[in-house]
């Protein structure tokens, strides 16, 4: 009994010590810088635009400005391999790209704070695209930094702290921005958000550059291949071709060796389809029911954030208990069913308890689903090509968000809130069928048929 107690105590001491590691703590501050820009070009910007009188359809179409998140895998090899003049020499490959992306983010947000976004709608769109591009580039560099700086035993703790920081960044640009808008102008709000990026800049200046993973073996294999295939090429060209192959083609060819890789990509694109169809309309739905800015920020942003964190821990337990595909299936199903709680809120109307019930149901299951999805992404990637492969997978997740969110305003204008939530709920059915099919294909079925008795 005493031995068991000592073992348990040591286990928790070792686990908690991971969170005191400076490398792990740094992930939280980088996560904050990564989470801050997302809402500033989506729901928070939509709130500001609606306050200025823009129609739902146009607001929904502005979701397309987040397109860079969906195609960031196209320039991920550049961020991975190409050095920046002056910056890379002094800060290293990862930190130089982090610095550049964060400076560009700050300048774009600051520029947005000096205009009227409705009167200068084209400028607003251009700045929103630039913010999305800089933020996506920051995500690529941060992911690569995390993979290379942390040891394998620190990945779980680093990801937990990173997600917590990410949520704090979203809290700042979501509930923080909405609350701040009640006492200052929206232009001032965006100026404050721009200066909040100083957190990320200070972190990048203080952390160390990681050691790069060694890909010499794959490079030498490719070099022999190109020397044999193109013997007339100079040694310089022969060396350039395998470098380009390693940076651009190898991550994708390696991924395509996986069984069921096409189905995996479809899951990335459609797994969050329910939320994506609703898009940026949640806050606008609450406004239409008569809730004010403080009520929305307290329920949807602050309470919702902690509900999502709780859901993340539940998702982790389910993943440990059930394994990959069953947890992926169950978490996706429960979150889609939770969307039906919006119909209850629509029927009840302006009732604060119903609002909190709706937010709790959606955000807890959303946290569960996020954990399952991220765990699935990690199982799909090769560590040597992790930055580009994860950029590909997360790009597809964002592509689903941008593609389906652009229809949300039209659905509300033409079909109403009721049908928006019904469509969002039942759209998960094809995705669940694909998950089950893939589990059978890989020999991990979670619906096992009982053998008939003879």
TrEMBL record:
Concerning Pfam families, the annotation shows: MFS_1
Chief location: membrane
Q: How does the protein's chain sit in the membrane according to the entry? A: Multi-pass membrane protein
Ordered alphabetically, the record's keywords are:
Membrane, Transmembrane, Transmembrane helix, Transport
Question: Which domain of life does the protein's organism represent?
Answer: Bacteria
Transmembrane portions of the chain: 24-48, 54-75, 96-115, 184-205, 261-282, 302-320, 327-348, 417-441
Any one GO CC term of the record: membrane
Acetylation keyword on record: no
Subcellular localization, as worded in the UniProt entry: Membrane
Q: Does the keyword Zinc apply?
A: no
GO molecular function, a single term? transmembrane transporter activity
Kindly give the NCBIfam families that the UniProt entry links to this protein: 2A0125
Family the UniProt entry places it in: Belongs to the major facilitator superfamily.
Q: What is this protein called?
A: Major facilitator superfamily (MFS) profile domain-containing protein
